[in-house]
Amino acid sequence: MLSLEEAQSRAQDLVTAARRAGADAADAIYACNASTTVSVRLGELEDVERSEGEEIGLRVFIGRRSASISGSDMNPATLGTLVDRCIAMAREAPEDPYAGLAPEDRLLRKRPPHLDLTDDEEEPEPAALRERALTVEEAARTVPGITNSEGGGASHGRSQVALATSHGFAGAYAGTSHSTWASVLAGTGADMQRDHASHSARHLEDLDHAEEVGQRAGHRAVARLNPVRIESGVLPIIFDPRIGSSLVGHLIGGIVGPAIARRSSFLLDSLGAALFDSAVTIIDDPLRPRGLRSRPFDGEGLAVHRSALIEAGVLTGWLLDSASARQLGLEPTGHASRGGSGAPGAGVSNVHMEPGVLSPGDLMADVKRGLYVTELIGMGVNGVTGDYSRGAAGFLIENGAVTQAVSEITIAGNLKDMFRALTPASDLSYRYAINVPTLRVDGMTVAGG
């Protein structure tokens, strides 16, 4: 793995070489990921894995023609060959009126903000990861009713990104990650139920204790025992925070610039419209210290900032990289995302829905009969029409209280209708890349077994 300084220098050298070889403009991105993972099962070591990979990608422009290429060999001679091939490819590519680097006047020029993304403590030894993996699984297996285990694990990783462009941007940043997880089974035979728990953090001191993660996994699995079948009908649905974030994910998929430019989104004509109740605000914050998706600049070198995707229920704008912005006659928004090869796309960073005023208990207090959903199955969502149909499991709500486990059900609706009927509870916590409180959506169709 190159140091940050070496990575940035390598990207800049590649851009300089491309310009000397005849490119009108170019950018290069370096990405590296290294991780160590230890997994156990039934108290025995199952696997120790160390992975490390690095990639550098080059994109060149000749007029309105462009091409991109990537490689994993950092040898200067090899990178010289990469430049020649990319230039040759660009000369044969079709013209694209929207191709080009990001607007020069929008580039991040000042020192990147410090986001505290790297843990300065020494990398955990495999023995320490093994101990944490054993602890999390043992904590899950000691929960009464747990009969088997799919395993527990712990990991540590480090990633680095460097970006350079021919019109003056150069930057790099790194991040670390620590994770713990367990998956266990309760019951026996055909009545077995499975559930899991996990936690990830940038810094080890922010990671949940392994015992807590294991206990959550065990109690979740036991709670799912003896599920009942329910009749079909139209019911209010309460989404657990760990799966309610998927609803925000569908919103994001509908407002990225490439989908709007292709006219392939269910939210195509919704700019400035009230999609949610006025109590709903959804924030994208790439500058959150220690955030799982925090970054000091976007995939094209633009400055990033905290913004409201939904403000008091209203859709405020699209998520735009430079190409989709040009196609739509708009300005890029600092949401470009980039891999090692290919053109940038658009995406978000740390997203959360602001909490409401009701506790989860109060949110369901008037529900005579409904569902508390803790698991979603399948991907039955149409991003063009917004039609939504997914398998689900969770618990029956009767007279405002969570009662029996339920499984083998399907919940269905249309995302626009679901957004309008959504009410957030007050229990927001920041644990994932997308965070929501407990959510209530009235009027969904439930198909029982």
From TrEMBL:
Which GO cellular component terms are attached?
A: cytosol
Q: Which GO terms describe its biological process?
A: proteolysis
Metalloprotease TldD/E central domain span? 120-225
- Note the PANTHER family from the entry: METALLOPROTEASE PMBA
Q: Which Gene3D superfamilies match?
A: PmbA/TldD superfamily
Positions of the UniProt region annotated as Disordered: 97-127, 330-350
Query: What's a Pfam family this protein contains?
Result: PmbA_TldD_3rd
Q: Which organism is it from?
A: Sphingobium cloacae
Protein name, per record: Peptidase U62 modulator of DNA gyrase
> Which InterPro entries has this protein been placed in?
Metalloprtase-TldD/E_C, Metalloprtase-TldD/E_cen_dom, Metalloprtase-TldD/E_N, PmbA, TldD/PmbA_N, TldD/PmbA_sf
